[in-house]
Structure formats: structure tokens, C-alpha cells
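COMPLEX REQUEST
Ligand: fe (ii) ion
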Amino acid sequence: MGSVDPVAPELVAKIFSALYVRQQASRVQWKNAQCNPYCVVEERPLSVVVRHPNYFTSLPGEYYTSPQIFEQEKEKVFKRKWLYVAHVSQVREPGDYVTVRAALESLIVTRDRNGAVRAYFNVCRHRGSQICDELSTGKAKAFVCPYHRWSYGLDGSLLAAPAMRNGEDFDYPEFGLQEAHCEVFYGSIYVWLGKEPEMSLRDQLSGGGMFPINDEKLSSIEPERVKMIHENRHIAKANWKIVMENNIECYHCASGHPDIAVVADLENFYYERGDDGELVACGVDSSFGLKEDVKTYSMDGERVCKKRLGNLADGDSFVWADMVMWSSHPHFCDYSQKMIVHPISVDTSEIVLQWFVHEDAVEGVDYEVKDVIALFSAVAEQDYVFVERQQRGVSSDRYIPGPNHSLRETDMEAALLDYIKLMEA
Ligand code: FES
Ligand SMILES: [Fe+2]
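STATUS: Structure written out below.
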């Protein structure tokens, strides 16, 4: 706690979504970043201090262990961010549906008869049973609750309730499925669980408009023209922020991820100080850290799918990420990948990895699943161990947040400041 001095309030936005910033220019300079002794939001000092005069830290232990804080996060964080839930390839045709997790909720994502993507809370309006099995997929003309057989149309309206008549027993139109706000960004489906979005999805992905979305680049990649070929779901005994922090920093990559070091120059993930002390991202622009002459993120750097994503050349890439409710979406020349973290409880999270190749690629001809997923599967297995080990450590009475590396864990600070801003709003 202690006293704090105000600094430029735009700082939080400036250092938000650094992965996205890195994508926009090869040398990004964050002015004022060094002279940020503390942070403020709307002229009000944040009570959780992670920014110290010469370094920043992670959060105090209770933020990773307290059920009370987790309860607060349900309202203050999970319902105030757009959350990635699925890809349009999973709901290509009207009636296609996939039952997904979005933070703590189960949602039915489908395409209605008009072709619009819709997301409904998987909660029957009768007595609250889940309608679809969790994580189920299929094609439906209607969603029928298995308990008492209430049925709902693809537009969420209540179609029938056995032995209960519309307009006599009750008015059907008042008991349609509850719907989450839903937006599609280049094929990726996001939902907003709160009542009304506080920002557009594009605003969130562009860091409040400070880092304009590169539509020209994105259009050329055609991220919507992929298909999911594999999904890996893992329950980790770690708070979701521990997982998020681990995904953001690559300080641990050299020792923890030997397979990444084969294809990526880790220096590319770090920052350096410019002559006047400003933070400068090192070299990462469109390569996502790949070494020269490396074509993609695979075990040997060679392509793992013959069909390209749009016009991405060997070694080229594009990524967007949400830094707080962690999800990242890197696109390489031959495949794309999504990584999502779902909070389950204060000390349990679900980590989901999805892999995509071009929709025209043929398994056994253009790609083998095992080759596409090899590198990030290995990385994920290593990270599961790290995050669970850290969770056990921060649960100790003797855990005191220590200094993070200002140039190798830099992006964590932005995410933590944004998190604190949400919690203290
Ligand atoms: S709870 Fe769904 S029909 Fe009764
Ligand atoms: Fe890692």
C-alpha cells in the first residue's frame, strides 16, 4: 500500500496489449514507461501496488488464493471483457452448434436461420437445467431441454412447453433463452457476459483505439477460412492469473521451453531501453520471434501444412491477444493456434489449445495432426508444471512478490495494471 504519486493516466492504455503493439511496428517506443513510479486510473491511485520505483511485481498472494477476490472477479473482470469462445468454422451452417465455456458460464453458440452467429446461456428457462451437454457439438433444428422437454428455436425463442399452453398458462415470448452479446472478428467468435458491453470488441483488441487494427493484413490472411483440427483441454491447479502471467512472459522460455529455443530467437521477445530510457520492443514484428530462415513454429522449423493461410510467407505471422482474460491467436504461414484460459475456481483453471489449418487442407495429404500440434503441445505440458508449482508457492505465508524483469517480463505489467484497473473501477 503506501503513498503513491500520480502519473499520466494514459499509461495504462499505452502499455496495454503489447503483443498487438508489437505486431504493428518492428520498433515500438513506449514513452514515459520508465518514469512510471506508480500507476493511477482516472487520477485515483491504485491501492494494489505492483509498480515500485525500480521494478514491478506480481500481485499479493491473496489475489491468487482468496475465494473472496475470486468472487469479486466474477463481476468486475469476467463480465467486463470480450471473451473468445469459438471459431466460425465450428458453426458454418444454420443449426450447427457448439457448447462452449466462457469464464464460468456454459454457452450454446449456434448460427440462426438468417446466418447470424448467436450465443445463448445454456440454462433452461423452466427450472434451470443445462440444455446441451457441456462441450457438445452437433446440428439442431431446435434445442430441447432433456428434463421436461421445453424446446427452443435457433433464435432462442421458446417453441413448446409440454402440456403448458402459450398465452394461457404463460406467455412463451417472455421465456426465450437468455442471450450473450456476440461479435465475430475475422472468424473468431467473442462474447460479452455482462449486461451491456462497455467497449466494442475492436476497441478491446486495439487497446482502446491506440493501436489501429491492421485490416489490410488481416484480410490477406483470411483467418476465417480455417478449420479446427485439434483441441486440447487441460485442468490446471493454478489461479487463472498465474496462467495468464506465464503466457505473457518469455523470461522462462530459455530454460523452460527448449523446443521454442530451436525455432525462435528469444531476444526477439524481450525489450530494451532506448537512449532516453524508453522501452523498445526488440525486433518482433511479423515473425513472432522466429529465427531467420525458420518457416513456422514446428519442431524443426519446417512447415507442417502444405496449404498456406492467405498470403503469409514462410516465417511470417500475425497475432492478436487479449492480455487480461488471456487468449492469444497467432497465425503462422501454415497454421494458426488459439490458447484460452478459463477460470474455474480460485486455484483451478482450464487451459484450452486449438489448432487450425486452411479449410481446404486435407489430412494425410497436406498435414498430419501430430506434426501441427507437436511444438505447442510440448510447450503446454511444460507450462502446466510451472503454473501449478507457482500456485503452490504463492499459497505460502512466506510468499512476497519479488521484482520482475523489466525487459523480459515487461508485458505482464501492462496486463496486471489493466486487471487492477478493472478490479478497482
Ligand atoms: S428444466 Fe428444462 S424443461 Fe424443465
Ligand atoms: Fe511457457
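REMARKS: Residues 246, 252, 256-257, 379, 383 surround fe (ii) ion (ligand 2) (CB under 6 Å). The radius of gyration is 22 Å.
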